[in-house]
Request: fold
Amino acid sequence: MIRKLNSQDTDRVLEIWLASNIQAHPFVPEEYWQGNYQQVKEQLQSALVYVYEERQTILGFVGLVDRYVAGIFVDSACRGRGIGKQLLEEAKRDRPELFLHVYQKNTRALAFYLREGFTAIDLLLDQETGQAEWLMRWNKRPDEQDAGKKVPERGKPFVSAVIVAAGNSTRMGESKPFIFLENKPVLAHVLAAFDQVEEIGEIVIVCRKQEQEKARSILQTYPIAKPVLFAQGGDTRQQSVSNGICCTSSQAAYFAIHDGARVLVTPQLIQNVLADAFTYGASAAAMPVKDTIKEIDKNGFVSSTPDRSKIWAVQTPQIFQRAAYLNAMCRAQAAGKDYTDDCQLLEQAGAKVHLCMGSYENLKLTTQEDLILAQTILSRRNQE
Reply:
């Protein structure tokens, strides 16, 4: 039975709230929840709370403040019985839409809300815990579900560039963003290219924590006009991009994601991919492969030869409409998937990515041999 909370229920509801949060959020210190106990107790008085009860024992509850779901909590011994779903249905009953926050690392809750028709509309950083959290929305009319920022009819959309420069540079042997080419560090070359693109409203640099000060010093020596923010790199590329997205402006209608090691990117190439993304919603720079590609079996023998005319090598920038990208990342995290390419992230969510002609010069610095070629190209450009 589902009914409204009464004053006699408070202790039991708080017991479920505390135990559920500690169990579902091992990445947040227990002291955080214990420290918020009294505050939540007071907030219960002003919130609309529905409890699920069996045999005069409360097994779960949902808290609502207008259209915001403060949380759904179920006794750990009773999970998997559909209690949370029933409570959510009660919350949906007389409301045209609902909003809620879910910690990015709480993949079980993410998967639940996605199944129940919620979509991700923003990725934020909870200042109190330091944890990334999804802002999600449910709409009673799915055709009205707007998971992102609409592109204005007039003017150009705001684009946030995320420069991923958090790799270990194992094969290079030195940190790639800080290698000097043509008397400038690689990162300075990349920033200068994005700084010249009008549609770029801000730039987020994702780098390792121990290299942030070094990156900031580059900005002092080679200043740019665009606002620049910093995000800490994650254990994987997808996590690094996610950390960068957390720092972007809510104005952003598109995300332009670029490998910090692609030093030869040009403003014109960025603009070309942007125009393609504005048309198709998702676009990536890419080039037809020059070599014949072979698939091999586990013993090293050729198993097939793909049609070279259909094989393209993907580069960056890769630019995506906000809603599509957030939805794809949320679904990947809920499924425990981690991708090395942002196009693949979109593909797994059912989105189509259009490829825009890139440049054979837009190489990624990986080994020492790449430095020689990049230096030659930059030198030639400076002489033109």
Notes: The chain has two domains: 2-144, 159-383. Residues 368-383 form the longest helix (16 residues). The domain at 159-383 is CATH 3.90.550.10 (Spore Coat Polysaccharide Biosynthesis Protein SpsA; Chain A). Residues 145-154 have pLDDT under 50 and may be disordered.
